C-alpha cells in the first residue's frame, strides 16, 4: 500500500503500479488509511456506547 512507485525504473513502473492499485503518494495513502481507521473506530465506539446505554 505504501510503495513509492516512482522509485521503480520506467520499464517496471507500470507493473508495480498495477500491483499497488493506487495512484496516491505514500503520504496521501497513509493519511487515507489513518482517516479510514479513525472513522471505523469512531463508528465502533459509538455503537458500543449505544449498546451499553440500552443495557442500563
Q: What does this protein structure show overall?
A:
It is a single chain. The protein is mostly helical. The protein contains 2 helices and no strands. It has helices at residues 10-20, 26-55. It is rod-shaped, with a radius of gyration of 19 Å. The termini are far apart. The model has no long low-confidence stretch (mean pLDDT 82).
**Parts with pLDDT < 50 across at least 5 consecutive residues:** none
The computed structural class is: mainly alpha
Helix content: over 70%
Overall body shape: rod-shaped
Topology diagram in text:
Elements: H1 10-20, H2 26-55
Index terms:
56 residues; mainly alpha; 2 helices; 73% helix; rod-shaped
A few lines on this structure:
The chain is mostly helical and 56 residues long. Helix content is 73%, strand content 0%.
Amino acid at each position: 500500500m505504501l510503495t513509492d512507485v516512482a522509485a521503480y525504473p520506467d520499464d517496471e513502473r507500470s507493473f508495480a503500479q498495477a500491483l499497488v492499485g493506487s495512484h496516491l503518494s505514500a503520504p496521501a495513502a497513509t493519511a487515507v488509511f489513518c482517516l479510514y481507521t479513525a472513522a471505523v473506530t469512531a463508528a465502533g465506539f459509538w455503537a458500543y456506547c449505544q449498546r451499553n446505554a440500552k443495557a442500563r
